[in-house]
Q: What sequence folds into this?
């Protein structure tokens, strides 16, 4: 596994396939591999929003899909729906809805959330039914697999994996250490 973003392209944000928030010149790049149906990712979502707010000028956040389909049967479809919403410029708002309604991620629910955001519904429904964004989700999974991601959420701060299995405070500690270093 690579030690830093400079040595491994899988740890370098790519605007062509990634969803990125924050300044390009941020001192810290935080990459999350997440599953939209994963309860731990749902908890981490709020913590990441707080970090982004607290360090808005210093942290660039990247979200990549890593649906664990064997335990979360709706995760891959939800990821594709989020990408379809992203195709209409509403990725982050859609992800917020999915994380706040994780127990309701069936196809009908995904349509309702798109309607709530005012998305162009024929386009959204066609892209979802045609699995237009399956390749992008697969690209995210391939990057995560390359990095040996096994669980969600998995975070990287400036190319270093941060183990949050014992609490999300470790994520903030890692961001603070990167800013201090």
A:
């Amino acid at each position: 596994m690579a030690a830093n973003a400079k040595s491994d392209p899988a740890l370098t944000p790519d605007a062509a396939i990634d969803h990125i928030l924050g300044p390009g010149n941020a001192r810290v790049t935080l990459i999350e591999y997440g599953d939209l149906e994963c309860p731990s990712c749902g908890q981490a979502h709020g913590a990441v929003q707080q970090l982004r707010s607290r360090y808005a000028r210093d942290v660039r956040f990247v979200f990549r899909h890593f649906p664990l389909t064997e335990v979360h049967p709706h995760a891959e479809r939800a990821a594709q729906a989020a990408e379809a919403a992203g195709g209409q410029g509403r990725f982050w708002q859609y992800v917020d809805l999915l994380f706040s309604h994780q127990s309701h991620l069936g196809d009908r629910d995904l349509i309702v959330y798109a309607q709530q955001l005012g998305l162009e519904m024929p386009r959204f429904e066609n892209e979802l039914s045609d699995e237009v964004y399956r390749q992008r989700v697969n690209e995210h999974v391939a990057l995560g697999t390359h990095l040996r991601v096994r669980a969600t959420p998995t975070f990287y701060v400036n190319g270093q994996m941060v183990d949050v299995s014992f609490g999300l405070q470790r994520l903030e500690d890692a961001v603070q250490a990167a800013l201090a270093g």
